[in-house]
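Reagents: none. Just compute today. Solute carrier family 12 member 1.
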Amino acid sequence: MENPGFQTSKDDPPQYEETSFCTNGFGNGERRAIRSSVVSAFGHDTLDRVPNPDFYRNAASISGHRAVRPSLHELHDVFQKNGGLNLPSPVEDSEGVDSSTLGDVESVTPLEEKDTGGVVKFGWIKGVLVRCMLNIWGVMLFIRLSWVFGQAGIGLGIVVVLLSMVVTSVTCLSMSAICTNGVVRGGGAYYLISRSLGPEFGGSIGLIFAFANAVAVAMYVVGFAETVVELLKDSNALIVDPTNDIRIIGCITVVLLMGITVAGMEWEAKAQVALLVILLVAIANVFVGTVIPSTQDKRSKGFFNYHESIAKENFIPDFRDGETFFSVFAIFFPAATGILAGANISGDLRDPQGALPKGTLLAIFITGVTYLGIALVVSVTVVRDATGNRNDTIQAGASCNFSSACDFGYDFSICQTTKCNYGLMNNFQVMTLVSGFGPLITAGTFSATLSSALASLVSAPKVFQALCKDNIYKALKFFAKGHGKNNEPIRGYVLTFIIAVAFILIAQLNTIAPIISNFFLASYALINYSCFHASYAKSPGWRPAYKYYNMWLSLFGAVLCCAVMFVINWWAALLTYGIEFFLYIYVTVKKPDVNWGSSTQAVTFINAVNNALILSGVDDHIKNFRPKCLVLTGSPRSRPALLDLSHSFTKNYGLCLTCEVFVGSRDKNLQDMIEGDVQNQLWLNKQKHKAFYTPIASDTLRDGAQALMQASGLGRMKPNTVMLGFKRDWRTSKPQDVQNYVGILHDTFDFELGTVIMRVSQGMDISHILKAEEEMERMILEQQALEMEENDFQPGPRGFFNRAKKTPKKEPTSKVSLGVPQASDLAKLNQRLVEASGQFKQQQGKGNIDVWWLFDDGGLTLLLPHILTTRKKWRECRLRIFIAGQPERIQQDKEEMQLLLKKFRIKCEDIKVISDLNIRPSAENWKLFEDMIEPFRLHEGSKDSSQTEALRKEQPWKITDAELDAFEQKTMLQVRLNELLQESSRAAKLIVVSLPIARKGSVSDHLYMAWLEALTKNLPPTLLIRGNHKSVLTIYS
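Predicted 3D structure written out:
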């Protein structure tokens, strides 16, 4: 239909309406309004679309509908005015799949979950800053920080805090670069690592990171419970005993925290804000308390307000009880963890890209300054040792030089011989002593522990849900489902609750705590390494908006994290790496069907290109010869026997290209080629064949094969051997088809490639059986669809649920009976064909591979069967070598071959010298050969010259009498060889024979095919091999 908006002329482009492209994708005939910029910018109707963010969304995007741009074919193909183009809707429906996503199906959200109305999204302050500060400010702030500075001194204590901040800051810079390189979804550290390094690293660290967060809930709750139990002790109000009280209070606490979490993220965020207020008041209380003049009681416990002498004394380290710098650092470092608290709920942030860098870096700075500030004010106001006895004052006339407390009238020298209970080194409640109001510190301790527990209780299920959604561990798919407007992982909450309660019941987490810290550090190390790896790969897709990072700084951060892991606890670090390695191997073996465009893929590509370039600069050497096979299988599924045997030659040894020539016009076959390219490569990968699928369109089979021989491969990774099946139907094929087939063999010789022809007596092509199976499967699916449609409208007592009833699906098998109805004889033939086509997939068992090495072709005829014997399926087979010789030299020829094989380091079962090759074949077999070629003979001897010339012009492919006479000896040799093969190798598992060569222009195509037919008929699977007459074996080291 012509567009009335434009005048037609012969120079104008085709006129059309954008009917199919402008529908809304739901089949209701509505038109989408064309963007005005399209028409105004170009001045005419066009299918081209201006750049639009909707074209770049992932499948099932939750932030907007993904649009589908016109394909190149739709713009380039000849336009059909009467609706010839089937154009897609610009808005993808729920079942649409676009190859442009390259398998990126991350966070695919069901349609019912896409309604974002009422979803709670947090900004950078409440979602990241507050959450990270609360998680970093742990119980360490109030009960261990003073002890750390007492042991390490002010100088090394500052180093401990700054070193921890360096680790977390570098990690945060790396995280900022990763999370600003595209849209960040839920999953936190797991999401960042998996999308950068791939599912192997992401899947392994995601599981242990989620588990560490779950156990961290128990650790923080137990810390809270221990504080409560201490208060109960002071009040003499224990419920049972200290250990059981920890269990009781811990379980009650985690139940309450669980209730807050399940109530929703909004309630959890409000609780976090309330806890933050309490914590800030407690921190301020410490600073205020240091300027309040100390009382006599506080002075007896070591608190003297600000004094230079105390600062000087506490500046130098005083390690006691076997502590060292590294042991003190190991105790303090867990206080610096928690920087991923915001990233772990990345799916609940309004703008993760902007919020995570800003909120996390600011949280690290604020908490670091807080740790240093509190540590310093405490270290310059409290001495290391104090007795708490008000009477320990300096007596008149007595000397005192034990500590700076002497300057203020107190003598704590008794602490040299007796364990004291107060001071930086002895009292974990120094913060309470220093503070202006002691109970506020207790409240702050409660706030720090409960806020950290609450953050971990939220983080663990969120990370675990993201991991389960990606279906890397199929057994965990159950936990992927979310509930409510925020897609809350209720099942994950329950699992986290169970894990937390289990560890709370232990009530002693001193052993497991280092493992948790190591799990967090392993995550930090991989985040840093992810940033380094992505930068090193130099992928064009690595374009982080956050520019303040450096790849070498990220690598330094990764190494530093690993070092800190061993400093904290070497055996816990080894255990962490062991678990991660096991999970990495598991995911690698399972090979999840995901593709996230990881930097690992980018580096693999770079390494492949670099290695190919390195290879191209080095000449091939005989010792490094590998079979690189170009296998003319057609579709890889259609000739499994040919594919399996070629794969046995090349697996872990060389290169295998399975090639298919689409005969006919390119336009006609283009769509089949494009679809087949992806499908067949996926099939090869699924079947674990290490091979590449290469399709090509050509006017003839020979032209296509010729193009493949010339253009396939890259650098030194070009095919050196062509492998194809024997043309069994050459006697009934068109002369042109036979000419094309033989022409391929001539081309392999011209290009100096090795040639392998495989013949299986039952045949190899099962494409007609596969088509029958596909047709039957289609019929079954149609039948099921009809039955389901009928069931939809059948009234029944179950109502709506009646629709859920499934019809059992009949699984297709490889049996021919599945196909269309066939005659019994044909079915039996096809059954034998299917069995024969799969024979090389099976263990071959004991037997022989007979190698008839008649002509020296450089050694390929010997090397390929030797490679087979190294394979697991052929391991029990032994080589038997047959060579041609003269009757008077049989023993000598055998010894010479034994010596040659010994130099080649190739073992064989036996060597046989055939001395009667030149004997004329039996009359019966010769008669059979003559009958076989009779339809293809010209018989010019019985015709006059004019008739002969006319026949030669009309049928130039026929065999002439002169040709038969010229090659009579060679023809007899093929018939005689078959007799010897029948006699000596009939029971072999595989026969390998030197391929006879037909000189171009001298031997007709049909005579050459007759030679091959006569040579290989009625035999076990047979390979005809001819190398390129360049050595592939060497006797030298």
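The mean pLDDT is 81.
Action item: order primers for follow-up constructs.
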